[in-house]
């Protein structure tokens, strides 16, 4: 007689837990940044960024006269191809024996999930560094004020919300004198409502002395939808409701390892590079 309550689908349960954690963390990041646009696309899609400029005609128009044209220029910036990111990690039999199957897989899955997050945010920060808007000021507060003004002018909207990314060492001295609450999301420390920003993220991946600032509505999430097409039929992926990532757990008997395999195509990017201001902190006098 088979043992009662035998766990036979633990790998599936672990996969579901992984995708739900990732989906929730991504949702939290989107809410913090105020991202309204998420684009489910096919893998291989070329995502284009651009810069824009408007030259208005300054002429007065006489009654009945032809209205002169104002010029709007859109210039293409660097493109991003939406490609699959495929990752695999394995837990050896010795670790399963030492920690237990579920604990061993969960411990390594937590680190694995952090690496997936890091890959997504690193691409965003690298793109923000190529922003075409520039500002400079003495000290963090002055630079962030100038960045705020430049972004507000670039989008010229009543309800523009500002988000910034800074190095934690640049924030350290200021935060030591400020009564603020620091929190963490998607592997980055952040502050809400800091220096007129909706949210300010701190990451050591940002060079010290640099501040990246843009509008919340300039940020877009594009992803290859794991819930569509034949992928779900061909592979035993667990997927959350967003379809951002697919995860499966498997046993490699030839190597005696418990493996986690993920596949995802996610790009978090700024659509307008002229709406990204790269501020430089000069030494204070």
Describe the 3D structure.
The protein has helices at 10-33, 93-99, 101-128, 140-155, 168-176, 231-234, and strands at 37-41, 46-55, 71-81, 85-92, 133-138, 162-166, 183-185, 188-192, 199-202, 210-215, 219-224, 238-239, 245-252, 257-264, 266-270, 277-282. It has 285 residues and is an alpha+beta fold. The chain has one domain: phage-related protein like fold (Alpha-Beta Complex). Strand 8 (188-192) and strand 9 form a beta hairpin. Helix 1 runs parallel beside helix 3 and helix 2 (93-99) crosses helix 3 (101-128). The longest helix has 28 residues, at 101-128. It starts with 9 loop residues before the first helix and ends with a strand.
Helices and strands in order, then pairings?
Elements: H1 10-33, E1 37-41, E2 46-55, E3 71-81, E4 85-92, H2 93-99, H3 101-128, E5 133-138, H4 140-155, E6 162-166, H5 168-176, E7 183-185, E8 188-192, E9 199-202, E10 210-215, E11 219-224, H6 231-234, E12 238-239, E13 245-252, E14 257-264, E15 266-270, E16 277-282
Parallel strand pairs: 1-11, 5-16, 6-9
Antiparallel strand pairs: 2-3, 4-14, 6-10, 7-8, 8-9, 10-16, 11-15, 12-13, 13-14
């Amino acid at each position: 007689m088979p043992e009662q309550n035998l766990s036979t689908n633990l790998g599936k349960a672990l996969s579901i837990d992984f995708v739900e954690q990732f989906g929730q963390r991504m949702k939290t990041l989107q809410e913090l940044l105020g991202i309204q646009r998420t684009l489910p696309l096919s893998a291989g899609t070329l995502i284009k960024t651009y810069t824009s400029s408007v030259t208005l005609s300054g002429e007065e128009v006489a009654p009945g006269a032809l209205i002169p044209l104002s010029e709007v220029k859109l210039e293409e910036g660097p493109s991003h191809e939406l490609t699959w990111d495929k990752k695999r990690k394995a837990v050896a039999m010795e670790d399963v024996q030492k920690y237990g199957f579920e604990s061993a897989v969960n411990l390594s899955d937590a680190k694995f999930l952090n690496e997936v997050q890091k890959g997504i945010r690193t691409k965003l920060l690298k793109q923000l560094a190529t922003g075409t808007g520039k500002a400079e000021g003495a000290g963090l507060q002055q630079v962030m004020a100038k960045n705020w003004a430049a972004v507000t002018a670039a989008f010229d909207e009543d309800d523009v919300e500002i988000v910034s990314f800074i190095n934690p060492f640049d924030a350290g001295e200021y935060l030591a004198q400020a009564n603020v609450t620091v929190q963490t999301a998607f592997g980055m420390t952040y502050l809400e409502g800091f220096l007129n920003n909706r949210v300010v993220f701190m990451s050591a991946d940002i060079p010290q002395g640099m501040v990246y600032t843009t509008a919340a509505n300039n940020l877009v999430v594009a992803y290859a939808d794991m819930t569509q097409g034949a992928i779900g039929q061909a592979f035993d992926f667990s997927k959350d409701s967003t379809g951002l990532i697919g995860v499966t757990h498997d046993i490699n008997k030839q190597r005696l390892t418990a493996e986690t395999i993920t596949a995802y195509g996610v790009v978090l990017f700024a659509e307008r590079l002229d709406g990204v201001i790269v501020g430089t902190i000069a030494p204070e006098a």
